[in-house]
Design goal:
- About 5% of the residues have low confidence.
- It is built from 24 helices and two strands.
- The chain has 578 residues and is mostly helical.
- The radius of gyration is 26 Å and the shape is globular.
- Strands 1-2 form a two-stranded antiparallel ribbon.
- It is 67% helix and 1% strand.
- It starts with a helix and ends in an 18-residue tail after the last helix.
Length: 578
Amino acid sequence: MKKLRSNVLVVLTLILSVITLFVEQSSLAVDFAFYSNILDFIVLFLLLFEVYRDFAEAKLRWLYFRRNILSLLFVLAFAVLFVYNKLIYVGRAPDDLMGLSLGVVIVRNIFILLKTFSRIMRLNTFVESISVHPAQTILFSFLLVILTGALYLMAPFTTISPGGLGFLDALFTSTSAVCVTGLIVVDTATVFTFWGHLGILILIQIGGLSIMIISYFTIFLFRRQVSLEEKLLISYMLSEKDMTNLARNLRTIIFSSFFLEAAGALLLYFPMKGAAGGGSESAVFLAVFHAVSAFCNAGFALFSDSLEQFRGMLSVNLVVAALIIIGGISFAVISDLRHFFSVRIVALFRRRRPGIGSISLNSRLVLVGTAVLLLSGTYLVYGLEHTGALAQLPLAQQYLSAFFQSVTLRTAGFNTIPFDSLKSPTLLVMIVFMFIGAASGSTAGGVKINNIAIVWAYIRSVLRGGGQATIMRRSIEPEQVNSAFLVLLFGVSAVFGGTILLSASERAPLDRILFEAVSAFGTVGLSTGITAGLSSMGKWVIISLMFMGRLGPLTILAAVSRQGKRSPVAYPTGNIST
């Protein structure tokens, strides 16, 4: 009973903290300032009451202080910032708040940050329970990073105009960056300062590599001992059953990613130097930003027209396209190809036959599927738009633009042609490609090439009279077939539900709304121009679709499901008409 009351108190304080955060960062802040202050004091009272209750119930007071020293220091910092904040804000007229110094406003945002996370730190039992559940750990780590990024983008120094972003726009931008989507409700190029751009870049990198991969790479780097639960989590994220080479695989992922991004930035430097007006420092940041955004399949650009000004520049198109493709074929395929070619190169220089080894079935499937989608996408975009959006371009630029857009449909939202002028058949074709996405385990989204191939293999086996699904003369396990159909069903349901909600909240043609929903779920980031004008409900729908698309159906379903015991009872077979 005591534990139940404690959990209720923690949840109540968390809910009140979130409510005050919404009120203070919305247009209602001035109208409800009095009630917001009351909520603030209630939150502080509940927080201090929790500390007092735990201290009073502790049998060994010194042990309580020793075990909770960080939490107590956190509460103390929270209380100090609370008092400092109230001494400055309470009693001032709304117009006077605009004249406060930058330092005071930063303290205000720190106060809001601490106020929210103080609740999370108190949920110790909940954190311990999810730490041994890989899917839940991934889900909540992404939520934590998204919320942190949103609060950072609300700081006034991240935007050119004073005041920072509102909470919903900041949350949308943070979600889009962490989920490597690229949809924006404000112009990234003109709204944010350097610090805003840097924050978005960090969020993209964290989202592309995943916060858990970066965290555990740091653990391995400093040679700290890793528990079995942590190894299970890493193997779950990497889809790696063999846990003996986790440290090596993590090093390969991190160093390969940074190497490819650095190489891409180096190749983009001189084109970006011209776009930056010759400034070296600006060119370096532009090159790094777009290289990371391309490799992570994020689609964020620091130009208001995305990459339309580079439409005819072959070097930019090929470098960005290469980074998108490499980031979209998955780390497992990159590692497989690296091992395959390194063995043969070494054997060539030593003039001996290479050892036994070949590219895995998964890698071959991803490479073939990627080539088919890229080529078919190029010809379809060109065929449908050579008399439309591409009509005014030279023939070489038409093919180059068609190829580039075919690449970006792999869930990287750059564009070199205006999407608001595309024909409806082109949008429908693009919707299919965006929904498929790239490879499992990559930085890209969608339902993944791997799952589509498994579904097609199963359907083909049924049409041929049954038997096991096969791909490239290899049988596919029934569990993988079930997972592929589950991912496909989840994706269709999410897009269908999102389209219905957007149709109810937005005034736009249905094909544009469907395009927006698929772009969000596939973490693509391409838009026909309706994102900036979304209503509050529409923004929440897109945020949810981006989050579901980045984590993936299997992770979300595994996080919310409960592991139950299998029933030993076998029921008789029944027949249903089909």
